[in-house]
């Protein structure tokens, strides 16, 4: 029974976005509750532990996801073999990484509660090898990925609601994290079986080592990016104290929820990028420019409104005690459009098998972050960290764009980014000059931004249509 051509890219993206929205809401609810139940210092320790676990998880994933997805998209018969080998390779990396993460607390000088919490988060890393989203991506079963996104966050939120009441319950947060991580892992194993792929672990190093080497460049660039995400928390905790880390962590929590949609967007678009790069130069460049313009104008609108409403957003999410983090959030939120726009160059480098240049771009950004962070954080605390993060990502974006332009294919022009950026900044300045209440300021900024969009935005409806039909398939 044929249902005719389906707009598969749009369909898959909508299911992933639904899962991500639910995941974000559940995750937000859990951390917003923790921010109210714990003292700022205790909440800062949670964010510190989450940062360490996030960095270790990326090391464990090893860049193997894109490698596996690409292999399966070229030959679905490789699914059984790759599924077993990648899980095995990641388990080997977990055995190395989890103890190292736990041991880091002996060198930080923080209290015993942080040590136990970090060890619990380290134990949760043994669920990471079974995160088989790459397998479902390669088989184009995106709708199977969506429930896992929400499930993990829902279990975590429910657990902290039931078990955490005050700062003395800090250790229970780590226990809840373990339960949530393994619940999601169980779902992925079930999803793998439902699409007919067997779980066959291959513990021989002869199978794992070639995969680890192959994914090293992508993995290293992911590690560098994740280090950039969490390094500000590490630096602020040690250079400005746990309370400043709490203000930074609150702002980061909201921004990372937005940035996760960037990862989701390119997770879904990547097969079209890879296929178009191989088959059709002209259509690939048209697709990339359409995506560039569309996400640029939309994401900068989000950053514009979020900046104006920063105090209200922070207070609503984490309570009035976190209102001092509003200025941190108003700076940090510009990471969202920067990351979305820069994603085109970064994923083009992956699709063009130029991962070494992606790693170089992320390394340049990381050095910028460290230098600017060490210079700014001692004097400006969380605000300095936010400035350092956005600056570093702009530098990394420019580097990745130049590398992709040189080594992959012609990228969208700077004009496609500069027009919406200038429009957003100009409208933000206008709202500050008028100096009205928040609602009026948002209205003034959006009216001005809409006028700029009408004059300079081009055919965004056509761009959306082009993206929606990028992966047209037949359903039978």
Account of the 3D structure:
It is built from 19 helices and two strands. The model is unreliable at 1-6 and 472-476 (pLDDT under 50). It has helices at 8-37, 40-61, 64-74, 79-103, 112-124, 133-138, 142-163, 170-194, 205-214, 216-239, 242-279, 281-308, 310-318, 326-332, 335-351, 355-407, 415-434, 438-456, 460-468, and strands at 4-6, 473-475. Helix 1 (8-37) runs parallel beside helix 7 (142-163) and helix 4 packs across helix 9. The chain has a two-stranded antiparallel ribbon with strand order 1-2. The chain is globular and about 65 Å long. By secondary structure, the chain is mainly α.
For the structure shown, list the relevant keywords.
two-stranded antiparallel sheet; 476 residues; disordered N terminus; disordered C terminus; single chain; Tetracycline Repressor, domain 2; mainly alpha
Question: What pattern of helices and strands is seen along the backbone?
Answer: EHHHHHHHHHHHHHHHHHHHE
How many DSSP-defined strands? Answer: 2
Distance between the termini: 5 Å
Label the structural class. Answer: mainly alpha
Biggest sheet descriptor: 2 strands, antiparallel
| Integer count of domains | 2
Question: Strands, helices and their partners?
Answer:
Blueprint: E1 4-6, H1 8-37, H2 40-61, H3 64-74, H4 79-103, H5 112-124, H6 133-138, H7 142-163, H8 170-194, H9 205-214, H10 216-239, H11 242-279, H12 281-308, H13 310-318, H14 326-332, H15 335-351, H16 355-407, H17 415-434, H18 438-456, H19 460-468, E2 473-475
Antiparallel strand pairs: 1-2
Helix pairs in contact: 1-7, 1-11, 2-4, 2-5, 2-10, 2-11, 3-4, 4-5, 4-9, 5-8, 7-8, 10-11, 10-16, 11-12, 11-14, 11-15, 11-16, 12-14, 12-15, 12-17, 12-18, 12-19, 13-14, 14-16, 15-16, 17-18
């Amino acid at each position: 029974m044929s249902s005719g051509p389906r707009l598969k890219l749009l369909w898959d993206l909508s299911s992933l976005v639904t899962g991500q929205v639910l995941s974000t809401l559940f995750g937000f609810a859990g951390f917003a509750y923790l921010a109210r139940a714990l003292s700022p210092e205790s909440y800062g320790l949670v964010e510190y532990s989450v940062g360490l676990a996030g960095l270790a998880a990326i090391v464990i994933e090893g860049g193997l996801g894109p490698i596996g997805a690409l292999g399966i998209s070229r030959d679905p018969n490789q699914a059984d073999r790759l599924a077993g080998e990648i899980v095995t390779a990641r388990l080997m990396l977990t055995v190395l990484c989890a103890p190292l993460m736990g041991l880091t607390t002996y060198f930080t000088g923080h209290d015993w509660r942080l040590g136990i919490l970090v060890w619990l988060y380290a134990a949760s890393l043994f669920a990471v090898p079974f995160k088989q989203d790459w397998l479902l991506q390669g088989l184009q079963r995106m709708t199977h990925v969506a429930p896992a996104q929400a499930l993990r966050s829902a279990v975590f939120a429910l657990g902290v609601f039931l078990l955490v009441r005050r700062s003395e319950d800090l250790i229970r947060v780590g226990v809840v994290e373990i339960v949530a991580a393994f619940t999601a892992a169980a779902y992925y194993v079930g999803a793998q079986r439902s699409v007919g792929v067997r779980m066959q672990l291959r513990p021989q190093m002869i199978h794992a080592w070639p995969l680890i080497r192959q994914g090293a460049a992508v993995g290293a660039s992911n590690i560098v990016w994740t280090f950039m995400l969490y390094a500000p928390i590490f630096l602020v905790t040690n250079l400005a104290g746990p309370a400043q880390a709490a203000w930074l962590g609150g702002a980061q929590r909201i921004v990372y929820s937005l940035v996760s949609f960037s990862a989701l967007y390119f997770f879904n678009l990547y097969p079209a990028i890879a296929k178009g790069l191989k088959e059709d130069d002209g259509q690939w460049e048209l697709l990339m420019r359409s995506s560039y313009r569309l996400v640029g104008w939309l994401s900068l609108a989000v950053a514009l409104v979020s900046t104006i409403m920063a105090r209200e957003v922070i207070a609503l999410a984490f309570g009035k005690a976190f209102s001092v983090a509003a200025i941190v959030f108003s700076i940090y939120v510009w990471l969202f459009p920067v990351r979305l726009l820069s994603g085109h160059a970064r994923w083009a480098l992956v699709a063009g098998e130029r991962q070494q240049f992606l790693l170089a771009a992320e390394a340049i950004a990381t050095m910028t972050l460290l230098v600017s962070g060490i210079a700014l954080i001692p004097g400006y605390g969380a605000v300095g960290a936010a400035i350092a993060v956005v600056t570093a990502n702009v530098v990394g974006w420019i580097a990745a764009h130049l590398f992709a332009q040189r080594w992959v294919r012609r990228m969208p022009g700077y004009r496609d980014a500069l027009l919406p950026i200038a429009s957003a900044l100009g409208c933000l300045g206008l709202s500050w000059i008028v100096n009205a209440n928040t609602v009026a300021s948002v209205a003034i900024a959006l009216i001005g931004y809409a006028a700029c969009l009408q004059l300079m935005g081009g055919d965004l409806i056509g761009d959306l249509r082009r993206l929606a039909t990028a992966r047209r398939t037949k359903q039978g």
